[in-house]
Amino acid sequence: MISGFASQKFKFWLFVSMVLVVFVHSYNLHERYLQPWTIVNEPLTFTSFTEYFLTNGIFRFIIPLLFLMSGYLYAIKDYKPYKARTRKRLVTLLIPYLIWSAAGLLLIYLMEFLPASRAMVASSGLAQIDNSRMLIHNYYWYELAARWLFFPVSYQLWFISALLVYNIIYPLLRRCVTDKIIKWIFFPIAILLWLGTFSFVLIEGEGLLFFSLGIWIQKTSFDIDKPNRLLNPLPWGILFIIFAVIKTWLAFNGETILGNAIYPTLTLLHKLTELSGVIAVWFGLDRFVRYFMNRKWFVWATAFSFIIYVLHAPFVALVIDKVFTYENHFTNYRIFTFIFLAPLIILFCMGIGLIIRKIWPAGYALLTGGRGLG
User: Fold this and answer.
1) How far apart are CA 307 and CA 369, in angstroms?
2) Which is nearest to 316 in space by CA: 13, 28, 15, 14?
């Protein structure tokens, strides 16, 4: 069983992760699509350094942490039959995935009917198929089906589809991490896939490693409340900052120094930042968890974690350039947009969720997989 405080930590970090995801997707430098090895082809300024440092550095612990927590929480309920658990996950994950993926496609499709909003879609690249087709209206039927099922324009939904796959193959993963022999083969392979940023359809290295690690932690005597000597959050927190700073500086200057070696170097630093960040925040920020989880307004807000996640994109990607057209006469308009757009999107998502939950509880339950009804 989970201790009372650990339960609070899971809820706290789930909500905070959803908030930080919105900030990550509010990144507005010229190269919008971030990979671990992304380099920045623009001058190093306060704005560019800050945005990259946060969105492709400090905030990147969130996805490994979410998979880690998901694996741990799923492993706790082993007493329930596999078929019943799987059927429930189809309701809580697959149905919301299909609905929100379709909603994103419909939104983009309708926007393409008006010249102004069609330009927003084209400039965002959300619906791009190739260099000449930037709109959903230009899709073939099978491309539309693929977008709906596997490559949503609501791009954040990839996490839900990956999580569903790991839930379905959970018995296999549990065997892999608990068998005395197999685990010594499985974990090195999983680590290599994570380091190599492996991705194939619905299986990817990051989720595979950390979801499996969450299972292993739950099945052992590993203490998630208190760190052992090797997991002291202070040195890990220092490394977390150092790795993120070095990576950010190299993203601007490293290509001239390292040449093509910049890409594996940035990738390795990215992975080290993720790992150190997970350890540092989980074991090192308990005071913050206690403070906020004792605030009624914060606990109330955590009920909207899922709706923030599924609803914030593609809105955030669509509006960034539009906001720029109104703000580009301001000094530092890009950092201003980065700081203030994400909170506005978060409040918008919470507002929509609150309205739907109030007037249509059954629909809200369907859209969220039964989450946040309390």
Assistant:
1) 10
2) 28
C-alpha span between 367 and 374 (Å, rounded): 15
Task: Determine the Cα–Cα distance for residues 249 and 53; give it in Å rounded to an integer.
Answer: 9
Give the tens place of pLDDT for each residue, 72-119: 999 999 999 999 999 999 999 999 999 999 999 999 999 999 999 999
Q: What is the pTM of this model?
A: 0.95
3-class SS of residue 278: helix
The first and second tokens of residue 294, run together, are 């004792």
Write out pLDDT tens, residues 179-234.
999 999 999 999 999 999 988 767 889 999 999 999 999 999 899 999 999 999 99
Question: SS3 of 6, please?
Answer: helix
Q: Which residue stretches of the chain are H helix?
A: 4-24, 46-55, 62-76, 82-89, 95-111, 115-124, 141-149, 158-168, 170-178, 182-195, 205-219, 233-258, 262-284, 286-293, 296-302, 305-311, 315-327, 333-359, 361-368
